Amino acid sequence: MTIEQQLVGLIEHDDSVDPFPVTGWDALVWVVGNATQCAHFLQSAFGMRLEAYSGPETGNRDHKAYVLRSGGARFVVKGAVDPDSPLVAHHDRHGDGVVDIALEVPDVDRCVTWAREHGATILAEPHDESDEFGTVRSAALATYGETRHTLIDRSGYAGPYLPGYIARTSTLRDGPRLFQAIDHVVGNVELGMMDRWVDFYRRVMGFTNMAEFVGDDIATEYSALMSKVVANGNHRVKFPLNEPAVGRKRSQIDEYLEFYRGPGVQHIALATGDILATVDALRAAGVEFLPTPDTYYEDPELRARIGHVRVPVEELQRRGILVDRDEDGYLLQIFTRPITDRPTVFFELIERHGSLGFGKGNFKALFQAIEREQAARGNL
Ligand code: FE2
């Protein structure tokens, strides 16, 4: 098994029989209120490296865009420079968030033809962009809310990101890499819409169902949600989709939908090979995590369920790291508080040891933790 197979749970897949082959993630593109400061945060706290830039100095008078990388994960953060930029209206409505989950595909035209035949909304037809580094072919499909999937074939391109971007490196000191890849990206959709979007990913993009969680799996005393997971052929791209379920109080998904003004990306799971060191570094840089109560670790059922893991449970407890085991192995995970002003987007750190799951055994503890925070915000 390669490091990457272990980190994100890859499986073998034959692209030639796939109607919509997806090779992997290309980038997560964000619109934020201040890209200059967000880029600094992602470097100084999350250890990402600056790779490329576009802005007024490069002829882009509309916005600044910083391209950041950590291992196989690429983020692009954009913020308006021109007060009349369309990014201003987007940010006004949604706050900071992910606008584009860009995917790497070997054949853009084949994917768009299939997607159109199966009812997708095509936001950008296949087209080429070129500069001295070569040519990128891309197109874009609409997904939930105002989120899109740009489909990119950059096999004929050697530039730092896209035409219009220049290479730019970080002026911060080099630190250790804190995460290696994107593991999964979770979408929150409205009540009753989860199955529609699961169907979209299956029918339009050839994804398959991985797992689903309903009712008791993820209900707390107050609120509940439903979740289903779809994945591309090799499982590199995994999309859990959540919808609120009717509970006694307002669910965390309702809170998200209210503050994001509609469906959107809820959390991004970042794969690490050493979650303890990563969490220590993030905490030292001021990143805040959802607290896990000591009772979680003292529960004899938990100890029996998780069996042997690579570190003593006390080490996990000290950091608030959650652990879950299924028939394939185990995983360690932890969730940050929202990284935005609105209670919308947050990160998960995940270290997989064979498990292909999403921490089902932790859902209850996690949601109770989120609800304590919701209550503190006055939103429960
Ligand atoms: Fe997750």
UniProtKB/TrEMBL annotation:
* Record-listed E.C. numbers: 1.13.11.27
Q: Name one GO molecular function term.
A: metal ion binding
Q: Which residues form the VOC domain?
A: 24-154, 181-337
UniProt KW keywords: Dioxygenase, Iron, Metal-binding, Oxidoreductase, Pyruvate, Repeat
InterPro entries assigned: 4OHPhenylPyrv_dOase (IPR005956), 4OHPhenylPyrv_dOase_C (IPR041735), 4OHPhenylPyrv_dOase_N (IPR041736), Glyas_Bleomycin-R_OHBP_Dase (IPR029068), Glyas_Fos-R_dOase_dom (IPR004360), VOC_core (IPR037523)
* Cofactor: how and how many bound: Binds 1 Fe cation per subunit.
Q: Does the keyword Oxidoreductase apply?
A: yes
Q: Where does Fe cation bind?
A: 184, 267, 348
Q: Which processes are annotated in GO (biological process)? A: L-tyrosine catabolic process
Task: Work out whether the entry's keyword set contains Isomerase.
Answer: no
Q: Which domain of life is it from?
A: Bacteria
CDD domains this protein is in? HPPD_C_like, HPPD_N_like
* Cofactor needs: Fe cation
Note the Pfam families from the entry. Glyoxalase, Glyoxalase_4
Similarity annotation: Belongs to the 4HPPD family.
The name of this protein is 4-hydroxyphenylpyruvate dioxygenase
Species this chain originates from? Nocardia coubleae
Give the gene that encodes this protein.
hppD
